[in-house]
Structures are given as structure tokens and as C-alpha cells.
Amino acid sequence: MALEYFDIQSPRLKIGNVDYADLLRQFGSPLYVYDAGILKTKYRKLREALPAHVDIFYAVKSNPNPSVIRTFAESGAGCDVASYGELVAMQRLRIAPEKIIFTGPGKTDREIELAINLGVRSFNCESENEIERIQIIAQRLNKKINIGIRVNTDYAIKETLSIIGGTEAKKFGIDENKVIDVIRRHQKHPFIEFIGFHIFNASQVLDYRELARNTENILRLAEHIVHETGIALQYIDIGGGLGIPYALAESELDVAAFGRAMTDLHSHYC
After folding, report:
1. CA 78 to CA 122: how far, in whole Å?
2. pLDDT mean values, one per 10 residues, the chain (270 residues)
3. Exposed, middle or buried by CB within 10 Å (0-12, 13-18, 19+), for 180?
4. C-alpha to C-alpha distances, 28 to 21, 35, 36, 140, 208, nearest whole angstrom
5. Do β-strands 57-59 and 18-19 pair in parallel, antiparallel, or remain unpaired?
6. SS3 assignment for the chain
7. pTM summary value
């Protein structure tokens, strides 16, 4: 575990240079405390490791605390949202619309309409039905909308601990062997523009080599789909997967090595 972020040599634990006992006296117990300094340090390390043209989006569903969202947004991250409440949070925090991607299954018409009116950068669509509903709502609002497709791939990635994600046919996303036909059926619609892909194969990976191999497979797949459909690709959402050490025996992901691997891949494919 990453104990170096905490002062464990002091007589009592300190969080953000504040004695935990002082926090308990002020706020009571149970109490959850987030150290913005650690959040900023972790973000900075990842940002410095990755190529400059690779964007980082914070998955708001992982922790929708407004202060946490604000900390990452002020550091430069975009926001990946998955619900009506998270879209409303973007409004209240005044997150720039071009820094928001709307992801997740089961989007309601109400959520789609709010996201369109907010002017989010793109939707990551989970099904052909969702694409069709976005078309209908966008046409009614007379606004052209950017969309990406969540693709279920035929290849796997080794997770340290399986939490969510996965490969092959799934109830979320569009299977790899169907995605080209789906794009062809809808790419001439006047109110949508296909600009991206979202592939979410894993959520807890501590081996940077596994992440690099997964990214290379994603880039190859995107290259093939673009060749077959001719869409003007603007982004490839590799879906995260960067793990954290939960057990004492586990080590942190080597972010610097992951960044070097990503730089090599992007110099070849981008």
C-alpha cells in the first residue's frame, strides 16, 4: 500500500498535516477525510508521465464529492459523468462543457436532453437503441451531437482484482463484430457525428505492461474501424484500468513506465 503519502512516524496519524484527533473533535465520527494534496500529487505524476495530447478524465462516479471533483478539474482533468445528478453537479461547479463526456448504460431521455443542452463534448453510447434515441432528441432540439461508441472487444486484459469491465459479448456496449455495421447504419444521420470509441476492459490493473498491451489492441481496433467506415476520429477513450494497491503486498502502478509505453504507442499510431 502507498503509505508514503501519510506521516506514520508521528505519534498520531496526520492527514493533510492535520492531526486526526483534531478532525474528530471538530467533525465527529465516523468521518471520511480526503487530502487534496495527495489528489494533486497523484494527478500531477500521471499528467507528467503521459504524452501531452493524451487527456485525463476523472470518473465522477468513483467519488462525486464536489471538492474532489473541483480539485481534479482545477488541476486540468476533464469529467466523465454517468447520471443526471452528476450532470447537475457539472452545472453547479461550472465545469466547461467541452471537458465533459457522458458515459454509462441506461441513459434516460431526461439525462440525454440535459447533456445536449449543456453542450457536452460527446456521448459514449452503450447500444444502438441509445444512438437512435439521441438522434430523435437531438433533432427535436435542432442540435448536432458528437457521439462515441462503447465497443466490447474480443481480447482480454489481466486484472489484479476483477471489479468491473470485461471482454466479449456483454449487456453494455456494442460487440466488436457488430460495431462497423452499426456505424454504417447511422453515420449519415444529420444530427449526430461519430467521433470516438470507448473501450472499458478492466478497472484494477497494477502491471503497466498489461495496460500497454490493452491500449495497443484498442488502437489497432480503432484503426480498423476507421478504415472500414471513414469516420473522422477525434478521441479514443481507453476506459481507465489504472489500479491502486489494496493489500500490503501490492505495489503501486509504475506510472512513469506506463507513460513511456504510451508515448511509444502514440508515436506509432497517432
Report:
1. 12
2. 64 83 94 93 96 95 96 98 97 97 96 98 97 98 97 74 51 90 96 96 88 93 96 92 86 94 86
3. middle
4. 10, 17, 20, 51, 40
5. unpaired
6. CCHHHCCCCCCCCEECCEEHHHHHHHHCCCCCCCCHHHHHHHHHHHHHHCCCCCCCEEEHHHCCCHHHHHHHHHHCCEEEECCHHHHHHHHHHCCCHHHEEECCCCCCHHHHHHHHHHCCCEEEECCHHHHHHHHHHHHHHCCCEEEEEEEECCCCCCCCCCCCCCCCCCCCCEECCCHHHHHHHHCCCCCEEEEEEECCCCCCECCHHHHHHHHHHHHHHHHHHHHHHCCCCCEEECCCCECCCCCCCCCCCCHHHHHHHHHHHHHHHC
7. 0.89
C-alpha cell at 172: 453494455
Enter the C-alpha cell of residue 35. Answer: 487530502
- Name the grid cell of 32: 471520511
Single-letter residue type at 204? Q
